[in-house]
Amino acid sequence: MEESDEMGVLARLNYEPGLITRGYNDRTLYINLSTNEIKILPVDERMKQTFIGGKGFGLWMLWNTLPWDRIVRWNDPENAICISSGPLGGTVQYPGSGKSIVVTISPLTDCIIDSNVGGYFGPYLKFSGFDAIEVQGKAKKGVIIFIDGDNHEIRIDEDVDLPVDTHHLVPLLGERYGRGDLRSISTVSTGVGAEHTYWGCLNFSYYDAARRSYHFKQAGRGGTGTVFRDKGIRALVVKFSRFAPDINHPADYEKIKEGGRRYNAEIRELDPRQNEMSIVGTTHLVTIMNDYDLLPVMNFQYGSHPDAPKLGKEVFRKRFDRGFDGCWMGCSVACAHTVRGFVPRTGPYKGESVWVDGPEYETVAGCGSNLGIFDPDTVLEMNFYCDTYGLDTISVGTGFAFVMECYERGLITEEHTDGLDLRFGNGDAALELLHKVARGDGFGSIVGKGIRRMKSYFAERFGSDRKIMEDIGMEAKGLEFSEYMTKESLAQQGGYGLALKGPQHDEAWLIFLDMVHGYLPTFEKKAEALHWFPMWRTWFSLNGLCKLPWNDIVPPSNKNTPEPAKVMQHVEWYAEYFSNTVGRKVTPDDLITMSERVYNFQRVFNLRMGFGRREHDRIPYRAMGPVTEEEYESRRERYDKQLREKGILDPEGKTTREKLEALRRYREEQYERLIDAVYARRGWTKDGVPTIKKIKELGIDFPEVLALVSKYQ
Amino acid sequence: MSQNTSEDDEKGIECEVRFHGASSRITGREHIRLILCRGSTLKDLILHLKKKWPDLIRLIESNTFFITLNGKVLNEGDLEIELRSSDVVSIIPFVAGG
User: Fold this and answer.
1) Are residues A502 and A452 in the same domain?
2) Range A700-706 average pLDDT
3) Of A445, A480, A515, which one is at a domain's C-terminal end?
4) Least confident of A7-11, A490-494, A708-712, B2-6
5) Looking at CA atoms only, how far is residue B73 from chain A in angstroms?
6) Residue B89's closest chain A neighbor by CA?
7) Are residues A192 and A297 in the same domain?
């Protein structure tokens, strides 16, 4: 590595080309922006066996790079952003195999965050010779990190006053670094919103040759974009043009081709006859969630609304641009849709014709129904601005919903909101607030710090009632809830409350199994589900994979299997996929064990960061049951029945307040019982700490790990 | 059993049928209201749908969809359940959340 005297180049490293063998390069890339150091680090067999790749690699790299003399905060130079795909990442024969996983310390939770994202960056990074990248330190001025996989060169370039927001920045980066080959470029960037909030997301790009434009998928959760901008990174750019179908060099390429053909054929046949994700993406969920009383409406107060179909899949079927929309090559699910020629009515890009990448279900629910907004144009505009500003649509949606309820309840007034009338349903006010949040302007600068900090700020500065805000502020561990109503599903309450990074559904989406199918009637069954599903879902993020092909398209034979929710035929296919890539024969149970190692390691990492115990697995009462009398009355029949059938209280002649309080005591107790059952199933203590026996059994008994958990046995 | 069903029999019971996933593409709509003769069962309703949209039944019989009544999944043995006014029957594919 050399410091460069070349104009605008801060450092440069030429490297030997890598050769991917069985999904791995066996090396990672390390960059320190404080010192402009660039170095290549080896990956050993134990790292691969224990951490697999993706999130596992990110956690292990971060674990080793952080100092032990103190707890590092998100904006300390020692924090690192790690991005890795995984051994199966970059495969084009199987669907959903182009994911990257970002790991860093979150500004929202002050703990570990991981975020799984599409786009071409992770695969291109791997093809360029690296299983992962770790960026530590802080640049004095803005920089662009360029990984040139064609010419085997890594550079740290000075930022040259490029535009900040993503939809303007990335086409310029494509021209500058692609030199006429736009398809060879993939970028990671964010926007102005990431500089002023804790909700910054990262936009991962892919070039759509048919539409001749860059499109984006987001690593949304936990403020990864905020860390990125705090380090002074304008963009990561990777260039790679020498793609070949067998570039991942799997152990048995013929079997990979055969297995991939079988999986893709099934998806092509069944997706058009099931959820139609290749046409409507995940928007099909909107009316389903609405019909089953699970769609968050007005800050999770209610689960349905008569106007919800205005945001449903039939609306977006007409709005989405026709064409192939995979966020990685070869994916037959191809759910990443886009709207062409959208013209914003507000903000700095008012009147400009833009692409809107999305919306997905979460954005529709978060920036639509949860705000009482049922106008698709407003949702599209929120989607566009969140993306180009680099803001997470889920945290924006849930955060704004909290603000709007506070406003409606008089906890804050126009005096506090800079004059904005933030009643539910006011789309213009929501958009104006979004622009203020992105600019870090006035009330917007408070909102953009997230619900946990808003609660304290409102209580301390505005005198707002802290108790009611604790009940209605939908965050846990500091992260805003994703967009499902959990009040009537104890299993999903656990799915959110016990998620390692905070309440994101990617660990456990049990709501339908619990409420509609009735598969989880007992504590034992719920606890088993809260063991198996988080472990299995974790596995996708170790390997650079998307979960949708697993269980959003199911074969006809699945219905009559002993456990249809697990879609075991597909799990077996994934075991084959792994075996034929990595060259190590594994079974479905082995896949669960792989995840269990990383999952427990992440729990211990949380402990290292000062969290990771029972007290950190609490959720607000709004997630468990009705906080207000209006909420109780909206489902009175259901709640009265539960009080009666469970012998909690005879509702006859009781006031709503009395019933509400009795129900609350019962549900809070149920949640604690569930936690006990899950901790026991996972091999954790009653305080939620993995036991030493479990740590040893999983082979993650590194000395520092043992020292940490020993304090809490 | 389609003689048990009539969309304009005012003496009957009124149910709603909702179509999710690809089923709405077959029916061309996301929900319908049906007025059924009193005493009609779920089986009667399905036969009515079968007559109107044969492809819909093929979809249901493909084993990748399920039927819910008022939000709860039904099994084959539940086909004899007698429907009541305001019942909501949904035809829904397997969904699992990303």
Assistant:
1) no
2) 98
3) A480
4) B2-6
5) 5
6) A291
7) no
User: Both A315 and A463 in a single domain?
Assistant: yes
**pLDDT tens track for B6-37:** 444 456 899 999 999 999 999 999 999 999 99
Q: Which amino acid is at B37?
A: C
Of A132, A139, A142, the residue nearest A238 (C-alpha): A132
Q: What ranges make up the beta strands (E) of A611-660?
A: none
Residues in A closer than 8 angstroms to B93, CB to CB, are 274-275
Which domain range does residue A154 map to? Answer: 2-239
For residues A622-628, average pLDDT: 98
Domains of chain B plus CATH, in order, are 2-93 (3.10.20.30)
Q: Which CATH number covers residue A648?
A: 1.10.599.10
Residue B97 at interface with chain A, using a CB cutoff of 8 Å: yes
Which candidate in B57, B64, B65 is best for mutational testing of the A interface (most A CBs within 10 A)?
A: B64
Per-residue pLDDT band for A118 (boundaries 50, 70, 90) equals very high
Q: What distance in Å separates residue A446's CA from the closest CA in chain B?
A: 31
List CB contacts (< 8 A) between A284 and chain B: 20-21, 95
How deeply is B39 buried, as exposed, middle or buried, from its count of CB atoms within 10 A (0-12, 13-18, 19+)? exposed
Q: Name beta bridge partners: B44.
A: none
Which among B21, B96, B97 has CB closest to A276? B21
Domain of A404: which CATH number? Answer: 1.10.569.10
- Considering the domain architecture, whether residues A328 and A431 belong to the same structural domain is answered as yes
Tokens 């192939």 belong to residue: A324
Closest-CA distance, B3 to chain A, in angstroms, reads 29
DSSP calls for A632-697: HHHTHHHHHHHHHHTTS---TT--HHHHHHHHHHHHHHHHHHHHHHHHHHHTB-TTS-B-HHHHHH
How many residues can be counted in chain B? 98
pTM: predicted TM-score of the whole model, two decimal places? 0.96
Q: Which two tokens stand for residue B67?
A: 């039927």
Count of all residues that appear for chain A in the document: 713
| Total number of domains in chain A | 3
pLDDT tens per residue across span A227-250: 999 999 999 999 999 999 999 999
Q: Which residues, at least 6 apart from A12, have a Cβ–Cβ distance to it below 8 Å? A: A1, A2, A4, A6, A38, A153, A154, A155, A156
CA atoms within 13 A of residue A411's CA, in its CB half-sphere: 24
- Cβ–Cβ gap A275/B62 under 8 Å: no
Interface touch B22/A557, C-beta < 8 Å: no
Note the pLDDT of residue B57: 87
Residue type, A49: Q
What is the pLDDT, as a whole number, of residue B2?
35
Verify that A406 and A316 share a domain, yes or no: yes
